[in-house]
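Below is how a single chain appears once it has passed through the pipeline. First comes the sequence as given, then the structure the pipeline wrote out for it. We keep one example in the README because the format questions we get most often are answered faster by looking than by reading.
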Amino acid sequence: MALAAISSVLSTGAVGLVVLGIIVLIVRSMWKKKKAGGSCGCSCSGCAHSCGMKSMDETK
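Resulting structure:
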């Protein structure tokens, strides 16, 4: 009985670590893309900070 409980905890922990690792890689990829000047994932025309839009400082 104790072996089954330990096995269950270890397998749940392993799956949790895999899922956490995938999430970390996705967030890291998004962060690097954003830092490199990539898009947010939506179309530029519908974005408040669209690609062709100048900043408020440049329009003054």
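The two ends are 73 Å apart (CA to CA).

See the next section for the split statistics.
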